[in-house]
Write a structure and sequence with these properties.
By secondary structure, this protein is of the alpha+beta class. The protein is built from 8 helices and 6 strands. A hairpin with a 2-residue loop joins β4 and β5. The longest helix has about 40 residues.
């Protein structure tokens, strides 16, 4: 029994050594960066495979490739674009991002003879497709076909090097836009809440306020000025003149939106 165990252990060690010997040595220099031309080539190969209905013609896929169509997970060769007669048109826009290894197609396709807006995004890692995302929507109005025949040159031509903006700057602009949108939503919600509360108070105390204002005309001006100041401050509108209301608006605005 002891001899049998030793023979089994020796066999396992020999098998492991054989497998390790067969594995290729890792060589970082052998992994080539997939530039824009490479990514576009992968996308063209995938789209041609869709048009030919030949899943075997798809560029190399990762073992754990993930594919969706209109947010539903499917396998390569399945879905509307694969199983229907899909034909290309002259309207297509291709965008490639070598930093993230992603490339996308957006355009108009003929699906079963019907005009369809479609978008396809691929993510490539070390020469293999690891993500496939497909979106499509039909029901294009006939009047829109004229606008979906030839893309604008601005969308298809490369930006001159002297006019390009760095990726870091574009990322910062996107962050600022998102922050401003969040700030605007917060301001809108707060404005509506204050306006609703003011409307309720005015409705409940309408007679009292009217009687108080009728006693002195100057009180009406005070109420009007205060209301205008609050409205401008809530809406985020700066007031340049006169000096007094401008100071009140800015002070109230800083208190509302620190």
């Amino acid at each position: 029994m002891k001899t049998l165990k030793l023979m089994s252990a020796a066999s396992l060690c020999l098998a492991a050594a054989t497998v390790m010997a067969q594995e290729p040595v890792w060589n970082a220099s052998a992994i080539k960066d997939c530039d824009r031309a490479c990514l576009v080539g992968v996308l063209d190969g995938y789209m041609n495979a869709v048009f030919k209905k030949d899943p075997k013609a798809v560029p190399p896929l990762s073992i754990d490739v993930r594919m969706t169509e209109n947010a539903a997970q499917i396998d390569v060769g399945e879905g509307v674009l694969w199983r229907s007669k899909t034909e290309p048109t002259s309207f297509k826009i291709i965008v490639a991002d070598r930093v993230t290894g992603e490339v996308a197609f957006q355009g108009r396709l003929k699906v079963q003879g019907r005009d369809t807006l479609a978008a396809v995004r691929l993510r490539v890692d070390r020469g293999r497709i690891i993500e496939i995302e497909q979106l499509h929507a039909g029901g294009i109005a006939p009047q829109a076909i004229e606008l979906l025949t030839t893309p604008r040159a601005l969308l298809t031509e490369d930006v001159p090097v002297s006019q390009r903006v760095s990726r870091d700057v574009m990322f910062r602009v996107e962050v600022l836009v998102r922050l401003e949108r969040a700030r605007f939503r917060r301001r809108l919600i707060l404005t509506m809440a204050v306006a609703a509360a003011a409307a309720v108070l005015l409705t409940v105390n309408a007679q009292t306020i009217a009687a108080w204002m009728a006693m002195d005309l100057q009180r009406g001006w005070i109420v009007g000025l205060g209301s205008a100041t609050a409205i401008f401050a809530l809406a985020g509108v700066s007031v340049e003149a006169p000096y007094g209301p401008a100071v009140l608006v800015r002070a109230l605005g800083r208190w509302l939106y620190p």
